[in-house]
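Hi all, long-time lurker, first post. I run a small reading group and we've been trying to get comfortable going from sequence to structure in the token notation. Rather than ask abstract questions, I figured I'd post a concrete chain and ask someone more experienced to write out its structure so we can walk through it together at our next meeting. Sequence below, copied exactly:
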Amino acid sequence: MNARTTSTTRGVLYVHSAPSALCPHIEWAVGGVLGVAVSLEWTPQPAQPGSYRAELSWAGSPGSGAGIASALRGWNHLRFEVTEEPTSGTEGGRYSYTPELGVFHAVTGLHGDIMIPEDRLKAAVVKAALGDTTLVTEIDKLLGKPWDDELETFRHAGEGAPVRWLHQVV
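-- Answer (accepted) --
Happy to help. Here is the structure in token form:
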């Protein structure tokens, strides 16, 4: 008998701001990635009048966070973040998206710390040495600081909002 084990991970989708017309499309896109119907509790986003925010805690197969980020990237007027916890066989991940900056992706370790690959650090040092930029600026980019700076207002506006768990049957 050949037993097949399936790994499961968890994560959170934070939709920081979306126009009302996009809300059902976001639910459909996320549901398509997770393989289950998704119904988010949308609340007004005080940081951007006329837009809405929602949070979803999800469970699914490793890579689901990347799938969610990929399904939502490129949509105008949408700001979101997706986190995915590591498993015994996979690293975790963090994805941030703003219309102005596009997608930021970072690999995260067991405790949520961003893990920067050696080649990306070396490239940042070379770029700074050539005088194109500073090392601080390049490290800030590797850590996602421009995305954090842009999303911070939207994060604070959502404090105290409800969080729902969605579990995928595996």
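A couple of things your group might point at:
Helices lie at 23-34, 64-72, 118-129, 135-143, 145-157.
The longest strand covers residues 9-19.
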